[in-house]
């Protein structure tokens, strides 16, 4: 699969008028394709996967950090509470999943139980996080050869949402990031399912008390696999 994707990205990547690299969209249906670049495809080379794979991604440096869709995605998952509470990991949290302030008089301080916040401040904290962390995430998608991973905006939004929940450190060490660096987009999506624990508690189990963590990982995987579908409509 990696070899096939690499060949396609070389063949269909060109510079747009601004000089930025963009991938010309192409869809491959492995049920019908017999060979690519003169090479006969074998079942094990495409992991037995006959789904359509679209090459129409943009290099990470050209993507939007903190898109409206991302803010909405995170808010829907985290909720919005104007009074501090303990999350499933017993960490004091406020607003849209904020555990440490980045704006206002409390910037740099950790959230404490009893703290309050307005809805406007909650969104400001969320956007401040993405402004701060976004470039680090983009930099982490630079390959050893100096090229950046190409992604759909929706894939990048999911990555940033993951960073918001688990932190940049966890992202940089994750098998998700490594799969993207290896060019294995499908495996990157599947690897979101590895994140189902709070401590030693397996959130995929019934009555775990943290079922939302597992459901969020499942949604990330599903949305990741569907990324780019809107480009084919």
Question: What do these coordinates show?
Answer:
The chain is α+β, with helices and mostly antiparallel strands. It has two domains: 2-56, no CATH class; 68-232, Lysozyme, CATH 1.10.530.40. The protein has helices at residues 2-12, 68-78, 119-140, 153-166, 168-173, 175-181, 185-190, 211-226, and strands spanning 13-15, 21-23, 26-29, 35-36, 39-40, 52-55, 58-59, 81-86, 92-95, 150-151, 197-198, 201-202. Strands 1-2 form a two-stranded antiparallel sheet. A hairpin with a 5-residue loop joins strand 1 (13-15) and strand 2. Helix 2 (68-78) crosses helix 4 (153-166) and helix 3 packs across helix 4 (153-166). It is globular.
Largest sheet strand order: 1-2
Number of domains: 2
Report low-confidence residues grouped into runs of 5 or more: 1-54
Characterize the overall form: globular
| CATH topology description of the largest domain | Lysozyme
Which CATH C-level class of the largest domain is it?
A: Mainly Alpha
